[in-house]
Amino acid sequence: MKSIKSILLAVVLLGSTTACDKYLDINVDPNNPTVADLPLVLPSGQAAVSFVVGGQFNILGSILAQHWTISRGGNQYRAWDQFNITSGTFDAAGGQFVNLYSGALQDLQTVINSGTTQNEWRMVGIAKVMKAYTFHVLTDLYGDIPFSEALNADLTVSAKYDKQEDVYKGLQTLLDEAKTDLARKQGRFPGAADLVYKAGTDADMDKWTRLANTLKLRMYLRLSQVDPSGSKAGVQALYTPANEFLRAGESFQFVNATATNTENPFWQANFRLPNNLTVSKTTGDLLTASKDPRLPVYALDADLRTPEIDYVFVPNGTLSTATPTLSSYPGKAFIGQRFANGNINGTTGVSGVSAADDNAAKARPTIFLSYEESLFIRAEVLARSWATSTDKPETLYANGITASMARYGVTPGTYLSAPAVDYAKQTNKIRAIMIQKYLALYGSNGMEAWNEYRRTGFPELPLPATNVTGGKFLKRLPYVDSELQRNPSVQQTGTAPGDVTTPVWWDKD
């Protein structure tokens, strides 16, 4: 009897499924949809890139490029200042290497995969530009990286390491694909889901196309020392009437805010670990020598107790015991009120830093590629005579300086005519452009400043007084523990574990 009842119950349940379908499908989890909601995934990927590039990588790059060094009481980043960077430094569950691959890039790949099947070409194009930029960051730091087989666990769990030369070729192709996808003008506008340009119209989407061209230009110039003929050919191919580069007001930057956990990533890092960084003597000397109007924005007065401004800059690699008790911290535009200088902190009236300054530092955007940087890139192209244009290198150079200062609310005044700045008076035009790009990148994209130093050797940086590399400059980041332990393909690189002094492929200076 029991078995008959069971059979009857099963029949009743089977017969009732048609009626219940419209109410509930027990095989579908409404909380875990199988089709990605692209307007949710795209900003997640963008935010993950911002957090890594604008946070720890910005701090690392700014130290290696000698924008910043370590204050007397600071110890959090002292190892980096001495080139003591190991395979565990940017690894582990919250590590930057892992976050970019398993977080940011996976989100962007999801948008590409799902968006392609849904004809969401506008968001696919944006995701491809972001993907190209993220791999650009990774390969510049590590050299050979997983690229062609990355982000596809169905293919392999041991993605091969592509040579950096091939990665760069692949990035150019990826940006061309992005431009093609954007040109389709199909699919939804991301609007507020795009945390870079808030693209809600075709005019907004055109900014992504101009960004793709500008990224391509930056990447071609990165190869100027290792492959000058190929670099020049790539640049020349970009200089056509059909291609435009970033315009004023179109900086490639991530929008931050003042609410908790939405602040600028560097502000967040300084908030959690304040008073660790101070302005490097390398940058301080460049600023003071030409009476740069950005100096009071870039650095705090070392002694806030006196009316006169006293800037104290510290050479990189200085031991804590040899560091002045008071030195010039990064300016309020970067750290807001989050500092204590002797007995004075940012919340006291005597500091001259207000709550409004603090909010401005919180909401400062994460800058991936600024308009001012794009002007210096284009100035270098013309200074090398690698393209024909109605623009003049000296004009782009001056406009880049002016745009950098405008970002911080200052004007050049007589700065452009200073002997060390006046373009016409510089015998080495490339060096002049690189130094001004270096100063424009201060505090906002330290990693790019370090990249450009490795490429060109400008500005000339002194070796940190204390270093663990035997008097050699740090030239790359070491492959992280998780890759060394889990991905045997890392052996394809031929780079020894922990190696930080072998240059990446494009670094020939």
Write the layout of secondary structure elements.
Layout: H1 2-20, H2 38-54, H3 56-64, E1 68-70, H4 78-81, H5 96-117, H6 121-142, E2 145-146, E3 161-162, H7 164-183, H8 202-222, H9 228-238, E4 252-254, H10 265-272, E5 277-279, H11 281-289, H12 295-298, H13 332-335, E6 340-341, E7 344-345, H14 355-363, E8 366-369, H15 371-383, H16 393-407, H17 429-440, H18 446-456, H19 481-486
Antiparallel strand pairs: 1-5, 2-3, 4-8, 6-7
Helix pairs in contact: 2-3, 2-5, 2-6, 3-18, 5-6, 6-7, 6-8, 7-8, 8-9, 8-15, 15-16, 15-17, 16-17, 17-18
Commentary on this structure:
49% of the residues are buried. Strands 1-5 form a two-stranded antiparallel sheet. The protein has a two-stranded antiparallel ribbon with strand order 2-3. A two-stranded antiparallel sheet has the order 4-8. Helices cover 46% and strands 4% of the residues. It is built from 19 helices and eight strands. The protein has a domain at 38-259 and 367-489: Alpha Horseshoe (Serine Threonine Protein Phosphatase 5, Tetratricopeptide repeat), CATH 1.25.40.390. It is globular, with a radius of gyration of 25 Å. It has 509 residues and is mostly helical. A hairpin with a 2-residue loop joins strand 6 (340-341) and strand 7.
